Amino acid sequence: CLQWTTVIERTFHVDSPDEREEWMRAIQMVANSLKQRGPGEDPMDFKCGSPSDPSAAEEMEVAVSKARAKVTMNDFDYLKLLGKGTFGKVILVREKASGRYYAMKILRKEVIIAKDEVAHTVTESRVLQNTRHPFLTALKYAFQTHDRLCFVMEYANGGELFFHLSRERVFTEERARFYGAEIVSALEYLHSRDVVYRDIKLENLMLDKDGHIKITDFGLCKEGISDGATMKTFCGTPEYLAPEVLEDND
């Protein structure tokens, strides 16, 4: 009996040597479990689990937790309120295990549902998880409680570009060109992944500790938009919208 075998290669990117070791232990655990299968067992006969099959899901959760413990709100110290909006708030937190600082975005589920913002929230989560660029805010963890959604993101401690422009009134041409180049670089990256941002404004442009741009808030992103495609949705902040959009001109 002949059987085709396909070799699949995967590249994993981690942030620290500890995470690398965790991944290696998890992969080795899976390899060992495959070796322990009986001669009559089909290695492809694996049940992923479903809402009607909680036992399989629990087994998977246990296996994953061995590689990396599940993150909860108790893993952080809550230091300062960074911002507050309709759907929730952003808090400066410190991870107890590493001592690193992050910005935790906490959204209330009931408000998201009541305001019909579920689709935007799902889009933001997906974009955060699927993108990695030096001028986009990176997602570290995402988890939920019974009434909250929590996104733990890198902390851009340089503040909003809105604050800096309000304080200085005008940027030099060189400085404006520098920020503009980084913004365009980030947007080109999103476009290469068929994502349109749709909410560029000073309040969504943060600066990191080195003065580089970090674009944040991906709730109004539109996915699956290829070159040449157009969109008709009226969205964004009125003060920043083009006149023809406000006037609804095609």
From TrEMBL:
Transmembrane segments: none annotated. Residues 1-32 form the PH domain. InterPro entries: Kinase-like_dom_sf, PH-like_dom_sf, PH_domain, Prot_kinase_dom, Protein_kinase_ATP_BS, Ser/Thr_kinase_AS. The keyword Metal-binding does not apply. Gene3D superfamilies: Phosphorylase Kinase, domain 1, Pleckstrin-homology domain (PH domain)/Phosphotyrosine-binding domain (PTB), Transferase(Phosphotransferase) domain 1. SUPFAM superfamilies: Protein kinase-like (PK-like) (SSF56112). Residues 76-250 form the Protein kinase domain. ATP binds at K115. Keywords: ATP-binding, Kinase, Nucleotide-binding, Phosphoprotein, Serine/threonine-protein kinase, Transferase. GO terms for molecular function: ATP binding; protein serine/threonine kinase activity. Coiled coil: none annotated. The keyword Electron transport does not apply. Signal peptide: none annotated. Belongs to the protein kinase superfamily. AGC Ser/Thr protein kinase family. RAC subfamily. This is RAC-beta serine/threonine-protein kinase. It comes from Neovison vison (American mink).
